[in-house]
Design brief:
single chain, mainly alpha
């Protein structure tokens, strides 16, 4: 009897742990939503989309920040035949510059220019949500659409993270399980789409290496590693036709960013961390740890692998600024756990209450007392996203604690 009682207590503790840490209740709710009729699910998505669209259109009406001024400057320079890389330190590959110049040419003033950018980023967010629904993550898609973090970055801040994520998830959707012994049309489609993602913003620069680590024949694995980078290289090099190659390479590929690695600042004493960062340790740690994470998550299907990449890139990033918070929001919505929930709530409070972002009533009076100087905010947020990533890493090896859609499970069966 004592043994049975002890086993019962252990099982009860495990159940509590699963609910509190791993959010197995979120797994069950997602399963229930996928069991709804198609009409009921699309009603949920439609309501979330209506709220999200309205919120983004409102957010774009708020004053822009430094980045929006930069979009005006670089697009105007490009239209005038000047070099935005040299004049304004533009640090993105050509496609975003071409997009901005095109929008600038179509519009008469900053208001309409800002609206066009907002509509494009809104379209990217809708594509992300649509791909989540197609994959079997309808509840996560709805949560993503109404996320204050994504609304702030796509609407008010107007950064390009959403376009990079949309192209990458589309690429992984095309790739599917991808265990063929030879290169197929799906591999070529993936290479083009992922190359386009990298060409708007190289957020997923190491994802091709993650794909190469997945099980399968060496030929397709090598192709998936090299081909997207080749597409990116060709598009990137097109800038050399108009601007100095040396300057373009320096501004884009050698861009140092904020160099404020929350990882380094969290684990090292504040007297030591700045010197370590000055030596480039943040970038080295990012590269090494991201590759290790790719090996750890290699068993995941491509779509879920890309979601895991967005989480890992934020945790190990050598630099953190506001827009980076939006990159993993689709993954957070799918793989929600205690750490991710706290990180999401604090990030929403930070961006929602910041006078320079959404400046929402009530939140703007709470935020300064919870998250203080910008330089310290990312360090305040880091422990929670790290905790979420650790919980997610454990859950990825325990199927009952992680929600994988029916399509993801089918791909796992086919590739096992």
């Amino acid at each position: 009897m004592a043994t049975l009682h002890g086993a019962h207590e252990t099982s009860r503790l495990q159940c509590i742990l699963n609910r509190l840490l791993f959010f197995t209740w979120w797994v069950r709710v997602q399963q229930q939503v996928e069991g709804w009729t198609s009409g009921r699910r699309w009603t949920l998505i439609g309501v979330a989309a209506a709220i999200g669209i309205g919120a983004r259109l409102w957010a774009q009406s708020l004053p822009g920040n430094w980045d929006f001024g930069q979009w005006i400057n670089v697009s105007t320079a490009a239209l005038n035949g000047e070099d935005p890389y040299s004049l304004f330190g533009y640090n993105y590959p050509p496609p975003w510059l071409v997009t901005l110049a095109f929008f600038n040419a179509l519009t008469e003033g900053p208001e309409s220019f800002r609206l066009l950018i907002a509509l494009l980023l809104l379209a990217a967010d809708l594509v992300i949500a649509g791909l989540l629904v197609r994959r079997g993550y309808s509840l996560a898609a709805a949560a993503f659409l109404v996320s204050p973090v994504v609304i702030a970055i796509s609407g008010q801040h107007q950064q390009v993270e959403g376009i990079a994520v949309a192209f990458t998830l589309a690429a992984m959707t095309v790739l599917g399980a991808g265990r063929a012994a030879r290169v197929t049309g799906a591999d070529w489609g993936m290479a083009v789409l992922l190359g386009l993602s990298l060409s708007f913003k190289p957020v997923f620069l190491l994802l091709p290496l993650w794909l190469a680590m997945r099980p399968g024949a060496w030929g397709p694995r090598l192709f998936r590693c090299v081909a997207p980078l080749a597409v990116f290289g060709i598009i990137f090099a097109s800038a050399f036709l108009a601007y100095s190659p040396q300057v373009v390479i320096q501004k884009v590929l050698q861009h140092g960013g904020a160099n404020n690695s929350p990882l380094i600042n969290f684990f090292l004493p504040e007297q030591v961390a700045p010197w370590v960062l000055d030596q480039g340790a943040g970038k080295i740690a990012f590269l090494v740890l991201l590759l290790v994470a790719g090996w750890f998550f290699r068993h995941l299907p491509p779509f879920e692998l890309a979601l895991a990449y967005t989480l890992s890139a934020v945790v190990f990033s050598w630099a953190m600024v506001n827009q980076y918070l939006a990159g993993p929001m689709a993954a957070v919505a799918v793989f929600l756990n205690l750490g991710f929930l706290i990180w999401f709530l604090l990030s929403s409070l930070y961006l929602g209450g910041d006078p320079g972002v959404l400046n929402l009533p009530i939140l703007n009076s709470i935020q300064p007392n919870v998250l203080l100087e910008w330089e310290k905010v990312m360090q305040d947020l880091f422990p929670w996203v790290l905790a979420g990533w650790i919980i997610f890493a454990f859950a990825s090896r325990m199927p009952a604690r992680l929600y994988l859609s029916a399509k993801a499970k089918a791909e796992l069966i086919r590739t096992s």
